[in-house]
Amino acid sequence: MSLHEIDLQIDQGAEVLRPGDEEYDDAARVFGATGRPALVARPRSPDEVAAAVAYGVRHEMPVSVRSGGHSVLGHGTNTGGVVIDLARMDAVEVLDADRRLVRVGGGAQWGAVAAALDPHDWGLTAGDTTSVGVGGLTLGGGIGWMVRRHGLAIDNLVGARVVSADGRLVTASATEHPDLFWALRGGGGNFGVVVDFDFVAQQVGNVHVGRVAYLLEDPVDLLLRWRYAMRRAPEELSSTLVLMPELPGSPPAAMVLLCYAGEPGAPVSEADAAIEPLLELGTVVEASVAERRYADVLEDAHHPPGIRMVGRNILAPTLSTDLAEAIARLHRSPGPAAVAVRSLGGAFGRVPAEATAFAHRDAEVLVVCGLMVPADVPDAEVEPMLAPWQDVAVHGTGTYLNFQGSATPADLAAAYPPATYARLAAVKAAYDPDNVFALNHNIEPAGRGAVS
Ligand SMILES: Cc1cc2nc3c(=O)[nH]c(=O)nc-3n(C[C@H](O)[C@H](O)[C@H](O)COP(=O)(O)OP(=O)(O)OC[C@H]3O[C@@H](n4cnc5c(N)ncnc54)[C@H](O)[C@@H]3O)c2cc1C
Protein backbone atom coordinates (compact mmCIF):
# COMPACT_ATOMS: atom_id res chain seq x y z
CA MET A 1 0.00 0.00 0.00
CA SER A 2 1.44 3.40 -0.95
CA LEU A 3 1.81 6.25 1.54
CA HIS A 4 -0.77 8.08 -0.55
CA GLU A 5 -3.25 5.23 -0.09
CA ILE A 6 -2.61 5.15 3.65
CA ASP A 7 -3.18 8.89 3.82
CA LEU A 8 -6.45 8.41 1.94
CA GLN A 9 -7.48 5.55 4.20
CA ILE A 10 -6.84 7.51 7.36
CA ASP A 11 -8.54 10.60 5.93
CA GLN A 12 -11.63 8.70 4.86
CA GLY A 13 -11.83 6.66 8.05
CA ALA A 14 -10.80 8.18 11.34
CA GLU A 15 -11.43 11.81 12.11
CA VAL A 16 -8.04 13.48 11.58
CA LEU A 17 -6.79 16.84 12.79
CA ARG A 18 -3.70 18.56 11.42
CA PRO A 19 -2.01 21.87 12.36
CA GLY A 20 -4.31 24.70 11.27
CA ASP A 21 -7.53 22.72 11.81
CA GLU A 22 -9.99 24.35 14.16
CA GLU A 23 -9.79 21.81 17.00
CA TYR A 24 -6.10 21.04 16.51
CA ASP A 25 -4.70 23.19 19.35
CA ASP A 26 -6.99 21.54 21.90
CA ALA A 27 -6.22 18.12 20.48
CA ALA A 28 -2.46 18.74 20.75
CA ARG A 29 -2.78 19.51 24.49
CA VAL A 30 -3.01 17.03 27.39
CA PHE A 31 -3.08 17.43 31.17
CA GLY A 32 0.02 19.47 32.01
CA ALA A 33 1.68 19.32 28.53
CA THR A 34 1.34 20.70 25.02
CA GLY A 35 2.76 19.10 21.90
CA ARG A 36 2.72 19.75 18.18
CA PRO A 37 1.93 16.41 16.54
CA ALA A 38 1.84 16.11 12.75
CA LEU A 39 -1.57 14.58 13.09
CA VAL A 40 -4.17 13.60 15.68
CA ALA A 41 -6.39 10.68 14.64
CA ARG A 42 -9.65 10.05 16.47
CA PRO A 43 -10.62 6.52 15.41
CA ARG A 44 -14.04 5.01 16.04
CA SER A 45 -13.26 1.35 15.32
CA PRO A 46 -10.39 -1.16 15.60
CA ASP A 47 -9.88 -0.87 11.81
CA GLU A 48 -9.43 2.88 12.09
CA VAL A 49 -7.00 2.36 14.98
CA ALA A 50 -5.04 -0.09 12.81
CA ALA A 51 -4.95 2.46 9.97
CA ALA A 52 -3.60 5.15 12.30
CA VAL A 53 -0.91 2.78 13.64
CA ALA A 54 0.03 1.84 10.05
CA TYR A 55 0.31 5.52 9.16
CA GLY A 56 2.76 6.12 12.00
CA VAL A 57 4.80 3.05 11.07
CA ARG A 58 4.97 3.90 7.36
CA HIS A 59 5.97 7.50 8.02
CA GLU A 60 8.42 6.38 10.78
CA MET A 61 6.79 8.80 13.20
CA PRO A 62 6.57 8.57 16.98
CA VAL A 63 3.16 7.23 18.03
CA SER A 64 1.28 8.43 21.12
CA VAL A 65 -1.75 6.50 22.32
CA ARG A 66 -4.15 8.64 24.32
CA SER A 67 -7.07 7.70 26.51
CA GLY A 68 -7.74 10.40 29.16
CA GLY A 69 -4.55 12.36 28.44
CA HIS A 70 -3.37 12.35 32.10
CA SER A 71 0.02 10.71 31.68
CA VAL A 72 2.17 12.62 34.17
CA LEU A 73 4.95 12.71 31.59
CA GLY A 74 2.72 14.05 28.80
CA HIS A 75 3.04 10.85 26.75
CA GLY A 76 -0.44 11.41 25.31
CA THR A 77 0.95 14.00 22.92
CA ASN A 78 4.21 14.49 21.01
CA THR A 79 5.89 16.73 18.50
CA GLY A 80 6.03 15.69 14.88
CA GLY A 81 4.32 12.34 15.33
CA VAL A 82 0.91 10.68 15.31
CA VAL A 83 -1.48 10.86 18.25
CA ILE A 84 -4.10 8.12 18.37
CA ASP A 85 -6.76 9.77 20.53
CA LEU A 86 -9.30 7.14 21.61
CA ALA A 87 -11.84 9.68 22.90
CA ARG A 88 -14.47 8.47 20.40
CA MET A 89 -14.11 4.88 21.68
CA ASP A 90 -15.58 5.44 25.11
CA ALA A 91 -18.70 3.25 25.27
CA VAL A 92 -19.63 1.39 28.45
CA GLU A 93 -21.62 -1.74 27.59
CA VAL A 94 -23.08 -4.45 29.84
CA LEU A 95 -22.11 -7.79 28.27
CA ASP A 96 -23.58 -10.08 30.94
CA ALA A 97 -25.64 -8.60 33.76
CA ASP A 98 -25.58 -11.81 35.85
CA ARG A 99 -21.79 -11.77 35.90
CA ARG A 100 -21.62 -7.93 36.06
CA LEU A 101 -19.39 -8.20 32.98
CA VAL A 102 -18.90 -4.82 31.33
CA ARG A 103 -16.95 -3.76 28.24
CA VAL A 104 -15.37 -0.31 28.50
CA GLY A 105 -13.92 1.54 25.51
CA GLY A 106 -10.18 2.22 25.60
CA GLY A 107 -10.79 5.97 25.51
CA ALA A 108 -13.41 6.17 28.27
CA GLN A 109 -12.84 8.31 31.34
CA TRP A 110 -13.46 7.05 34.86
CA GLY A 111 -16.11 9.63 35.79
CA ALA A 112 -18.28 8.52 32.86
CA VAL A 113 -17.70 4.85 33.70
CA ALA A 114 -18.78 5.38 37.32
CA ALA A 115 -21.89 7.27 36.14
CA ALA A 116 -22.81 4.49 33.67
CA LEU A 117 -22.46 1.75 36.32
CA ASP A 118 -24.25 3.69 39.07
CA PRO A 119 -27.86 2.83 38.03
CA HIS A 120 -26.94 -0.88 38.39
CA ASP A 121 -25.49 -0.31 41.90
CA TRP A 122 -22.14 -1.36 40.43
CA GLY A 123 -18.76 0.29 40.48
CA LEU A 124 -15.16 -0.34 39.46
CA THR A 125 -12.31 0.55 41.72
CA ALA A 126 -10.17 2.97 39.76
CA GLY A 127 -8.64 6.38 40.38
CA ASP A 128 -10.09 9.32 42.23
CA THR A 129 -10.32 11.70 39.24
CA THR A 130 -13.19 11.86 36.73
CA SER A 131 -11.15 12.79 33.65
CA VAL A 132 -8.36 10.22 34.07
CA GLY A 133 -8.57 7.66 31.27
CA VAL A 134 -9.44 4.00 31.62
CA GLY A 135 -6.58 3.20 29.21
CA GLY A 136 -3.57 4.64 31.00
CA LEU A 137 -4.75 4.02 34.56
CA THR A 138 -5.69 0.39 33.94
CA LEU A 139 -2.58 -0.57 31.99
CA GLY A 140 -0.38 0.77 34.81
CA GLY A 141 -2.38 -0.95 37.59
CA GLY A 142 -4.97 1.53 38.90
CA ILE A 143 -5.02 2.46 42.59
CA GLY A 144 -8.28 3.97 43.81
CA TRP A 145 -10.69 4.61 46.65
CA MET A 146 -11.56 0.91 47.04
CA VAL A 147 -8.08 -0.59 46.60
CA ARG A 148 -8.12 -2.50 49.90
CA ARG A 149 -11.64 -3.78 49.23
CA HIS A 150 -11.41 -4.66 45.52
CA GLY A 151 -7.69 -4.50 44.65
CA LEU A 152 -6.23 -2.68 41.68
CA ALA A 153 -8.26 -1.87 38.57
CA ILE A 154 -6.39 -4.71 36.80
CA ASP A 155 -7.52 -7.20 39.44
CA ASN A 156 -11.05 -6.84 38.04
CA LEU A 157 -9.99 -7.09 34.39
CA VAL A 158 -10.89 -10.34 32.60
CA GLY A 159 -10.09 -9.48 29.00
CA ALA A 160 -8.99 -6.84 26.51
CA ARG A 161 -9.02 -6.41 22.74
CA VAL A 162 -5.79 -5.05 21.40
CA VAL A 163 -4.68 -3.72 18.01
CA SER A 164 -1.08 -4.85 17.78
CA ALA A 165 1.76 -3.06 16.00
CA ASP A 166 1.11 -5.02 12.80
CA GLY A 167 -2.60 -4.12 12.81
CA ARG A 168 -4.04 -7.43 14.08
CA LEU A 169 -6.99 -7.35 16.47
CA VAL A 170 -6.04 -9.71 19.30
CA THR A 171 -8.20 -10.77 22.23
CA ALA A 172 -6.24 -11.23 25.45
CA SER A 173 -7.65 -13.09 28.44
CA ALA A 174 -6.77 -15.95 30.78
CA THR A 175 -7.37 -18.37 27.91
CA GLU A 176 -6.44 -16.37 24.77
CA HIS A 177 -2.98 -14.82 24.46
CA PRO A 178 -2.54 -15.25 28.25
CA ASP A 179 1.03 -13.90 28.12
CA LEU A 180 -0.25 -10.65 26.61
CA PHE A 181 -3.10 -10.53 29.16
CA TRP A 182 -0.54 -10.87 31.97
CA ALA A 183 1.61 -8.07 30.49
CA LEU A 184 -1.31 -5.68 30.00
CA ARG A 185 -1.96 -5.80 33.75
CA GLY A 186 0.80 -3.44 34.85
CA GLY A 187 3.07 -3.29 31.79
CA GLY A 188 1.60 -0.02 30.50
CA GLY A 189 0.92 0.89 26.87
CA ASN A 190 3.83 -1.11 25.48
CA PHE A 191 2.01 -3.91 23.68
CA GLY A 192 -0.56 -2.33 21.37
CA VAL A 193 -3.66 -0.15 21.41
CA VAL A 194 -6.33 -1.52 23.74
CA VAL A 195 -9.61 -0.76 22.03
CA ASP A 196 -11.71 -2.08 24.90
CA PHE A 197 -11.37 -3.62 28.34
CA ASP A 198 -13.68 -6.28 29.87
CA PHE A 199 -14.10 -5.87 33.61
CA VAL A 200 -16.20 -7.60 36.25
CA ALA A 201 -17.78 -4.70 38.12
CA GLN A 202 -18.31 -4.79 41.86
CA GLN A 203 -21.59 -4.44 43.68
CA VAL A 204 -21.18 -1.00 45.21
CA GLY A 205 -23.87 0.68 47.29
CA ASN A 206 -23.38 4.00 48.97
CA VAL A 207 -19.87 4.69 50.21
CA HIS A 208 -18.79 6.81 53.16
CA VAL A 209 -16.19 9.37 52.19
CA GLY A 210 -14.56 12.03 54.24
CA ARG A 211 -11.67 14.12 55.31
CA VAL A 212 -10.22 14.50 58.79
CA ALA A 213 -7.79 17.40 59.38
CA TYR A 214 -5.43 17.38 62.34
CA LEU A 215 -3.38 19.98 64.13
CA LEU A 216 0.10 19.46 62.69
CA GLU A 217 1.96 18.73 65.94
CA ASP A 218 4.12 15.68 65.37
CA PRO A 219 3.93 14.22 61.82
CA VAL A 220 5.94 11.11 62.77
CA ASP A 221 3.56 10.30 65.61
CA LEU A 222 0.59 10.95 63.32
CA LEU A 223 1.98 8.65 60.61
CA LEU A 224 2.64 5.84 63.09
CA ARG A 225 -0.78 6.16 64.71
CA TRP A 226 -2.37 6.09 61.25
CA ARG A 227 -0.34 2.98 60.43
CA TYR A 228 -1.57 1.32 63.64
CA ALA A 229 -5.19 2.20 62.81
CA MET A 230 -4.98 1.01 59.19
CA ARG A 231 -3.36 -2.29 60.18
CA ARG A 232 -6.45 -3.00 62.28
CA ALA A 233 -8.99 -1.50 59.87
CA PRO A 234 -11.41 -3.68 57.88
CA GLU A 235 -10.51 -3.76 54.21
CA GLU A 236 -13.71 -1.90 53.37
CA LEU A 237 -11.74 1.14 54.54
CA SER A 238 -9.04 2.70 52.35
CA SER A 239 -7.35 5.95 53.32
CA THR A 240 -4.57 8.35 52.42
CA LEU A 241 -2.63 10.50 54.86
CA VAL A 242 -1.65 13.79 53.23
CA LEU A 243 0.96 16.25 54.52
CA MET A 244 0.62 19.60 52.76
CA PRO A 245 3.53 22.09 52.82
CA GLU A 246 3.21 25.75 53.66
CA LEU A 247 1.83 27.56 50.63
CA PRO A 248 1.05 31.24 50.08
CA GLY A 249 -2.01 31.90 52.26
CA SER A 250 -2.14 28.48 53.92
CA PRO A 251 -0.04 26.95 56.70
CA PRO A 252 1.30 23.37 56.55
CA ALA A 253 -1.49 20.87 57.17
CA ALA A 254 -2.15 17.20 57.83
CA MET A 255 -5.26 15.29 56.85
CA VAL A 256 -6.60 11.84 56.18
CA LEU A 257 -8.84 11.26 53.16
CA LEU A 258 -10.96 8.15 53.55
CA CYS A 259 -13.48 5.94 51.81
CA TYR A 260 -15.46 3.11 53.41
CA ALA A 261 -17.14 0.83 50.85
CA GLY A 262 -19.22 -1.75 52.69
CA GLU A 263 -21.82 -4.26 51.56
CA PRO A 264 -24.76 -2.52 49.88
CA GLY A 265 -27.42 -1.89 52.54
CA ALA A 266 -25.08 -2.49 55.49
CA PRO A 267 -25.91 -0.44 58.61
CA VAL A 268 -24.21 2.94 58.94
CA SER A 269 -22.86 1.80 62.31
CA GLU A 270 -20.39 -0.51 60.50
CA ALA A 271 -18.89 2.44 58.63
CA ASP A 272 -18.84 4.56 61.79
CA ALA A 273 -17.01 1.85 63.73
CA ALA A 274 -14.39 1.49 60.99
CA ILE A 275 -13.82 5.24 60.66
CA GLU A 276 -13.82 6.04 64.40
CA PRO A 277 -10.10 5.23 65.01
CA LEU A 278 -9.11 7.80 62.37
CA LEU A 279 -10.83 10.46 64.45
CA GLU A 280 -8.50 9.67 67.35
CA LEU A 281 -5.10 9.98 65.69
CA GLY A 282 -4.39 13.50 66.95
CA THR A 283 -6.07 16.82 67.67
CA VAL A 284 -8.83 16.96 65.07
CA VAL A 285 -9.46 20.47 63.76
CA GLU A 286 -12.06 19.55 61.16
CA ALA A 287 -13.85 16.35 60.17
CA SER A 288 -16.51 15.63 57.61
CA VAL A 289 -17.78 12.24 56.52
CA ALA A 290 -20.77 11.81 54.25
CA GLU A 291 -22.64 8.91 52.67
CA ARG A 292 -22.56 9.27 48.90
CA ARG A 293 -22.94 7.39 45.67
CA TYR A 294 -19.56 6.10 44.52
CA ALA A 295 -20.06 7.93 41.19
CA ASP A 296 -20.24 11.23 43.10
CA VAL A 297 -16.96 10.63 44.92
CA LEU A 298 -14.73 11.07 41.88
CA GLU A 299 -13.72 14.67 41.26
CA ASP A 300 -12.05 16.56 38.46
CA ALA A 301 -8.50 17.83 38.80
CA HIS A 302 -6.93 20.91 37.29
CA HIS A 303 -3.28 21.53 36.69
CA PRO A 304 -2.23 24.49 38.87
CA PRO A 305 -1.20 27.37 36.55
CA GLY A 306 2.49 28.32 36.54
CA ILE A 307 3.43 25.27 38.61
CA ARG A 308 5.18 22.13 37.55
CA MET A 309 4.38 19.11 39.72
CA VAL A 310 7.33 16.74 39.88
CA GLY A 311 6.10 13.36 41.07
CA ARG A 312 8.12 10.59 42.66
CA ASN A 313 6.83 7.56 44.56
CA ILE A 314 7.77 4.36 46.29
CA LEU A 315 5.93 1.22 47.25
CA ALA A 316 7.17 0.26 50.71
CA PRO A 317 6.59 -3.09 52.43
CA THR A 318 6.50 -1.42 55.86
CA LEU A 319 5.78 2.08 57.06
CA SER A 320 8.67 1.92 59.53
CA THR A 321 9.61 4.59 62.05
CA ASP A 322 12.66 5.42 59.88
CA LEU A 323 10.43 5.91 56.85
CA ALA A 324 7.98 8.06 58.84
CA GLU A 325 10.90 10.22 60.00
CA ALA A 326 12.19 10.59 56.42
CA ILE A 327 8.70 11.62 55.27
CA ALA A 328 8.52 14.23 58.04
CA ARG A 329 11.93 15.63 56.99
CA LEU A 330 10.78 15.79 53.36
CA HIS A 331 7.64 17.61 54.44
CA ARG A 332 9.73 20.18 56.35
CA SER A 333 12.14 20.72 53.43
CA PRO A 334 11.85 24.01 51.53
CA GLY A 335 10.59 22.17 48.39
CA PRO A 336 7.69 22.73 48.79
CA ALA A 337 6.51 19.14 48.61
CA ALA A 338 3.12 17.56 49.29
CA VAL A 339 3.37 13.97 50.53
CA ALA A 340 0.54 11.46 50.26
CA VAL A 341 0.78 8.05 51.95
CA ARG A 342 -1.82 5.62 50.60
CA SER A 343 -2.81 2.52 52.55
CA LEU A 344 -2.61 -0.78 50.67
CA GLY A 345 -3.03 -4.38 51.84
CA GLY A 346 -6.39 -6.17 51.84
CA ALA A 347 -7.50 -7.40 48.39
CA PHE A 348 -4.50 -5.64 46.79
CA GLY A 349 -2.12 -7.83 48.79
CA ARG A 350 -3.88 -11.15 48.18
CA VAL A 351 -2.95 -11.28 44.47
CA PRO A 352 0.25 -13.33 43.98
CA ALA A 353 3.19 -11.18 42.85
CA GLU A 354 3.68 -13.18 39.65
CA ALA A 355 -0.02 -13.15 38.64
CA THR A 356 0.21 -9.71 36.99
CA ALA A 357 2.98 -7.47 35.71
CA PHE A 358 2.33 -5.23 38.74
CA ALA A 359 4.50 -7.24 41.12
CA HIS A 360 4.78 -5.34 44.40
CA ARG A 361 1.86 -6.92 46.21
CA ASP A 362 3.59 -6.96 49.58
CA ALA A 363 3.50 -3.14 49.87
CA GLU A 364 1.88 -1.71 52.97
CA VAL A 365 1.91 1.83 51.58
CA LEU A 366 2.45 3.89 48.46
CA VAL A 367 4.29 7.11 49.30
CA VAL A 368 3.86 9.84 46.69
CA CYS A 369 5.79 13.10 46.70
CA GLY A 370 4.58 16.03 44.62
CA LEU A 371 7.30 18.66 44.46
CA MET A 372 5.82 21.98 43.36
CA VAL A 373 8.28 24.02 41.32
CA PRO A 374 7.75 27.05 39.09
CA ALA A 375 6.93 25.92 35.54
CA ASP A 376 10.03 27.59 34.07
CA VAL A 377 12.60 25.81 36.28
CA PRO A 378 14.83 23.73 33.96
CA ASP A 379 15.19 19.97 34.47
CA ALA A 380 18.80 20.32 35.63
CA GLU A 381 17.66 22.38 38.63
CA VAL A 382 14.82 20.05 39.59
CA GLU A 383 16.92 17.01 40.47
CA PRO A 384 18.90 18.74 43.30
CA MET A 385 15.57 19.97 44.72
CA LEU A 386 14.57 16.32 45.11
CA ALA A 387 17.49 15.56 47.47
CA PRO A 388 15.23 15.25 50.58
CA TRP A 389 13.15 12.70 48.66
CA GLN A 390 16.16 10.36 48.42
CA ASP A 391 15.96 9.63 52.18
CA VAL A 392 12.40 8.45 51.63
CA ALA A 393 13.15 6.62 48.39
CA VAL A 394 15.69 4.27 50.00
CA HIS A 395 12.83 2.64 51.93
CA GLY A 396 11.01 1.60 48.76
CA THR A 397 11.13 -1.82 47.14
CA GLY A 398 9.09 -0.72 44.14
CA THR A 399 7.61 2.15 42.16
CA TYR A 400 4.15 2.75 40.71
CA LEU A 401 4.98 4.02 37.21
CA ASN A 402 1.63 5.78 36.73
CA PHE A 403 2.62 8.33 39.39
CA GLN A 404 6.28 8.54 38.45
CA GLY A 405 7.38 11.88 36.98
CA SER A 406 10.53 10.46 35.43
CA ALA A 407 11.17 7.64 32.96
CA THR A 408 14.65 6.24 33.49
CA PRO A 409 16.09 2.72 33.40
CA ALA A 410 16.23 2.95 37.22
CA ASP A 411 12.47 3.64 37.31
CA LEU A 412 11.80 0.56 35.18
CA ALA A 413 14.08 -1.53 37.38
CA ALA A 414 12.25 -0.28 40.48
CA ALA A 415 8.84 -1.03 38.96
CA TYR A 416 9.63 -4.48 37.60
CA PRO A 417 11.69 -7.13 39.41
CA PRO A 418 14.18 -8.80 37.01
CA ALA A 419 11.99 -11.85 36.25
CA THR A 420 8.96 -9.62 35.60
CA TYR A 421 10.97 -7.36 33.32
CA ALA A 422 12.39 -10.31 31.35
CA ARG A 423 8.88 -11.69 30.82
CA LEU A 424 7.58 -8.25 29.75
CA ALA A 425 10.44 -7.87 27.29
CA ALA A 426 9.61 -11.27 25.78
CA VAL A 427 5.92 -10.31 25.37
CA LYS A 428 7.01 -7.00 23.86
CA ALA A 429 9.18 -8.84 21.33
CA ALA A 430 6.21 -11.02 20.38
CA TYR A 431 3.66 -8.21 19.91
CA ASP A 432 5.71 -5.09 19.14
CA PRO A 433 9.16 -6.25 17.95
CA ASP A 434 10.01 -2.87 16.36
CA ASN A 435 8.97 -0.88 19.43
CA VAL A 436 6.29 1.15 17.65
CA PHE A 437 4.70 1.86 21.04
CA ALA A 438 7.68 3.60 22.64
CA LEU A 439 6.13 6.77 24.09
CA ASN A 440 5.56 5.27 27.53
CA HIS A 441 7.63 3.75 30.31
CA ASN A 442 9.30 1.84 27.57
CA ILE A 443 10.11 -1.83 27.66
CA GLU A 444 12.63 -2.77 24.99
CA PRO A 445 11.74 -5.92 23.03
CA ALA A 446 13.82 -8.86 24.30
CA GLY A 447 17.02 -9.12 22.31
CA ARG A 448 17.26 -5.38 21.69
CA GLY A 449 18.29 -4.17 25.15
CA ALA A 450 17.61 -4.65 28.80
CA VAL A 451 17.05 -2.54 31.84
CA SER A 452 20.31 -1.76 33.60
C1 LIG B 1 -4.85 14.44 38.20
C2 LIG B 1 -4.42 13.02 38.19
C3 LIG B 1 -5.00 12.12 39.08
C4 LIG B 1 -4.61 10.78 39.08
N1 LIG B 1 -5.19 9.92 39.96
C5 LIG B 1 -4.83 8.62 39.95
C6 LIG B 1 -5.41 7.69 40.86
O1 LIG B 1 -6.24 8.04 41.69
N2 LIG B 1 -5.02 6.39 40.78
C7 LIG B 1 -4.10 5.96 39.89
O2 LIG B 1 -3.81 4.76 39.87
N3 LIG B 1 -3.51 6.81 39.03
C8 LIG B 1 -3.86 8.12 39.05
N4 LIG B 1 -3.23 9.00 38.21
C9 LIG B 1 -2.16 8.51 37.35
C10 LIG B 1 -2.77 7.92 36.09
O3 LIG B 1 -3.15 6.58 36.32
C11 LIG B 1 -1.75 7.95 34.95
O4 LIG B 1 -1.31 9.26 34.74
C12 LIG B 1 -2.35 7.37 33.67
O5 LIG B 1 -1.32 7.15 32.73
C13 LIG B 1 -3.38 8.30 33.08
O6 LIG B 1 -4.12 7.61 32.13
P1 LIG B 1 -4.80 8.40 30.93
O7 LIG B 1 -5.42 7.40 30.06
O8 LIG B 1 -5.62 9.52 31.45
O9 LIG B 1 -3.52 9.06 30.25
P2 LIG B 1 -3.00 9.05 28.74
O10 LIG B 1 -1.98 10.14 28.72
O11 LIG B 1 -4.10 9.11 27.78
O12 LIG B 1 -2.31 7.64 28.62
C14 LIG B 1 -1.14 7.36 29.35
C15 LIG B 1 -0.38 6.26 28.63
O13 LIG B 1 -1.12 5.06 28.73
C16 LIG B 1 -1.06 4.35 27.49
N5 LIG B 1 -2.43 4.19 27.02
C17 LIG B 1 -3.52 4.91 27.38
N6 LIG B 1 -4.61 4.37 26.85
C18 LIG B 1 -4.21 3.30 26.12
C19 LIG B 1 -4.89 2.32 25.36
N7 LIG B 1 -6.22 2.31 25.26
N8 LIG B 1 -4.17 1.35 24.75
C20 LIG B 1 -2.82 1.34 24.86
N9 LIG B 1 -2.12 2.23 25.59
C21 LIG B 1 -2.82 3.20 26.21
C22 LIG B 1 -0.16 5.13 26.58
O14 LIG B 1 1.15 4.62 26.69
C23 LIG B 1 -0.20 6.51 27.16
O15 LIG B 1 0.97 7.25 26.94
C24 LIG B 1 -3.60 10.35 38.18
C25 LIG B 1 -2.99 11.25 37.32
C26 LIG B 1 -3.40 12.57 37.31
C27 LIG B 1 -2.73 13.53 36.37
Key features?
seven-stranded antiparallel sheet, single chain, 452 residues, Uridine Diphospho-n-acetylenolpyruvylglucosamine Reductase, domain 2, binds flavin-adenine dinucleotide, 15 helices, five-stranded antiparallel sheet, Uridine Diphospho-n-acetylenolpyruvylglucosamine Reductase, domain 3, Vanillyl-alcohol Oxidase, Chain A, domain 3, 3 domains, globular, alpha+beta, 28% helix, disordered N terminus
Layout of secondary structure:
Elements: H1 3-12, E1 15-17, H2 24-28, E2 29-30, E3 33-34, E4 39-42, H3 46-58, E5 63-66, E6 82-85, E7 92-96, E8 101-105, H4 110-117, E9 122-123, H5 134-140, H6 147-150, E10 157-163, E11 169-173, H7 178-184, E12 193-200, E13 202-203, E14 206-214, H8 219-232, E15 237-244, E16 253-260, H9 268-275, E17 284-293, E18 307-316, H10 321-332, E19 337-343, H11 347-350, E20 365-374, H12 379-385, H13 387-393, H14 409-415, H15 418-431
Parallel strand pairs: 4-6, 5-6
Antiparallel strand pairs: 1-4, 2-3, 7-8, 8-12, 9-13, 10-11, 10-12, 14-16, 14-17, 15-16, 15-19, 18-20, 19-20
Helix pairs in contact: 1-3, 8-10, 10-13
Bound molecules: flavin-adenine dinucleotide.
Flavin-adenine dinucleotide (FAD) binds at residues 30-31, 64-72, 75-76, 86, 106, 127-129, 132-133, 135-137, 139-140, 142-144, 188-189, 193-194, 301, 402-403, 439-440.
